[in-house]
Amino acid sequence: MPDRKTRVLYIVPPTRSFAGIERVTDSICSALAIEYQIDLDVSVLYTSPFEQIVGQPRPYHVILSFSDGRLDLLRRVRKTIAGGRFDLVVVPQVEATAVFWLACLGIRRRFILYLHGNPRLERRSFKASALFEAMRFLVLPRLARVFGTSPRQLDAFRSDYPSKVEHVWVANPVRSFDTPVPVPAPAIGRPVRFVTVGRFAYQKGYDILLRAFAAFCEKRGDAELALVGYGEEEPAIRSLIDELGLAGRVTIQHYPDSPAIPLSNSDVYLSGARWEGWSLAICEALRFGLPVVAFDCEFGPSDIIVDDRLGRLVPLGDTAGFVKAMVHYHDHVVSERRHAQYRIDYIDRFSLDKVVHAHARALLAADGRVETRTSAAADSLRAEPAGAS
């Protein structure tokens, strides 16, 4: 194996908030730069001025390049890739990967498509459809790898877009929290507390969740629901809360940096998402020992909730089944805590210090370097193609 580092560039496309993809990229690249400094030289190109990044020290190379428009963005991305002598360029999502690959025609660089969401639901405009077709016929056959956040997501993408390119599951890291992971005290003498965390967006199904909670309240009166997040749908969510007569039982809370406080004060986690790529919010709820009620949407929840001790999956659209699961956890909120430690231990497999090894091995394999010189970590690396046994 050549005595060199694999030079990797992750690109973070322009966004308004430092949230899912942005936070995952920062976490993974920080861990890669520290744990695999002998094998990997990691850089991240940020195209938005996140306060969490600008002026803040990072163990990887931070490249800041803010554009004045789409054409300027493509020019800046091409210039960065051309000048960096990178072995691999990792880009999230189908559209961004197709656009940046096309912008770099004539530059010999190997790209990796890193799926985060649900590609089946992202072709919602003519432009998106055109880029997906460019991916199918032009870009995909020339990629070094396809990474994904869940096995089902990768299986679906491979079925919809057949290719000979290797697909590899690299799990998103679940944050550890500074505060000790608590197991809530028995819900005696107070209402049972349900909670959900996420962007206030159509994808997350807050309208579905609120209607389910309203139906639940007709069966059980002593419960509260906390909606933790922010986003463009907040005015509509507030209006629906008033319309359903839930103002005294539902609260909207903002914890932009960490959901530790609301999760530690809750009893049951709810997910009304219409679709996911994975679901870090579900994983973080399990980190706090909470049982989860979630719709079995594509993709993610069924790859996480694999045991009844972790929670209950309900077919997407089955509001009555969702309410039934809520009633179960309400009525058994104390006895269900016997599984809290199991949930905490289970989700630890997705901690950053564990999943970083799968990411590293996937990158090194894409660069033709199956072995690593970081011997302590090599034994624990387990990055296999989706569906492999």
TrEMBL record:
Q: Name one GO molecular function term.
A: transferase activity
Q: Which UniProt keywords apply?
A: Transferase
What are the coiled-coil residue ranges? none
Whether Transferase counts among this entry's keywords is: yes
Q: Which Pfam families match?
A: Glyco_trans_1_4
Keyword Transferase found:
yes
Task: List, alphabetically, the SUPFAM superfamilies matched.
Answer: UDP-Glycosyltransferase/glycogen phosphorylase (SSF53756)
Q: What is this protein called?
A: Glycosyltransferase involved in cell wall bisynthesis
Query: Source species, please?
Result: Bosea lupini
